[in-house]
Specification:
This protein is of the alpha+beta class. The chain has 2 domains: 128 residues, no CATH class; 127 residues, 3-Layer(aba) Sandwich (Glutaredoxin). The protein contains 9 helices and 9 strands. A 7-stranded mixed beta sheet has the order 4-3-7-6-5-8-9. Helix 1 packs antiparallel against helix 2 and helix 1 packs antiparallel against helix 5. It is elongated and about 70 Å long.
Length: 267
């Protein structure tokens, strides 16, 4: 399990792991520093902020063309666009420099950083192990015209499957980016599998928003969500050409995070 389901919404557990690691770092550093009548919480917060900023900057730099048209989207962290390696490197460098400069608080600072790092590494490894190995389910769904289409008929090339509904705000926000990605990446298949709504509702929404999408499928009873263990919306699934689930993005995606997912399929 790599997400927490709250009704129709899903929250990824990776940010929760990061939060727990930060709390453990702060508590460890505070306890050791208190023995000397000192405080290291401000230093640990600075290191965390530097790591977060470096990870985001590295991601934006890698996918800058997707942000160039609307640079303010850089500030929208909901897409989860980070490069952890860059964040780790920045945190390690800053922690080493601060520890060298501040000898009285060195032990507490390094203990806090070590505790947080171990907790984050263990949590991340646990999530990786817990991620189920899945294949594209053997389901048949209807399109808006009532034509029955087996999902596995789309195999043979990388496949991006988006689970969405028109009542879901993050689904609505991410749809233009997904529509654009479908036009840009013609070597990749895209399926927009609506969860629980009628063909009339879907047509009305797409017309209202001016969206032109290929491969819009209806899943009135949420069978695909159940078969893939996707407890909330939106969820975007990345399958390789053989139908193996390679990655899963919970919550709103951006053009950059979709491009990152597609890169993983091509590798």
């Amino acid at each position: 399990m790599t997400e927490l389901g709250l009704g129709p919404l899903a929250l990824p557990l990776a940010p929760l792991v990061t939060g727990i690691a930060l709390v453990l770092a702060l508590l460890t550093g505070k306890r050791i520093a208190a023995r000397r009548g000192a405080s290291v919480e401000n230093l640990l917060w600075t290191i965390f902020a530097a790591a977060l900023l470096a990870a985001r900057i590295a991601f934006v730099a890698r996918y800058w063309p997707y942000y160039a048209e609307a640079p303010w989207h850089i500030l929208d962290l909901r897409d989860g666009g980070f490069k952890p390696a860059a964040g780790i490197a920045a945190a390690a460098a800053l922690a080493a420099w601060l520890a060298w400069r501040d000898r009285p608080r060195r032990k507490a600072l390094l203990a806090g950083v070590l505790a947080g790092s171990l907790a984050w590494s263990a949590g991340t490894a646990a999530l990786s192990v817990a991620r189920p190995k899945q294949q594209l389910p053997d389901l048949t769904l209807a399109d808006a015209n009532g034509r029955e289409l087996p999902l596995r008929s789309f195999l043979g090339r990388p496949l991006v499957v988006n689970l969405w509904a028109s009542w879901c705000p993050p689904c609505r926000r991410e749809m233009p980016a997904l529509a654009k990605a479908q036009r840009m990446h013609r070597d990749v298949g895209f399926l927009f599998v609506n969860q629980g709504e009628s063909a009339a509702q879907i047509r009305s929404y797409l017309q209202e928003q001016g969206l032109r999408l290929d491969n819009v499928l209806l899943d009135r009873t949420n069978r695909l969500a159940g078969a893939t263990g996707s407890p909330g919306l939106p969820t975007t699934l990345f399958f390789d050409a053989g139908g193996r689930l390679v990655d899963r993005s919970l919550g709103q995606v951006s053009a950059a995070t979709v491009a990152q997912g597609i890169e993983g399929l091509r590798r």
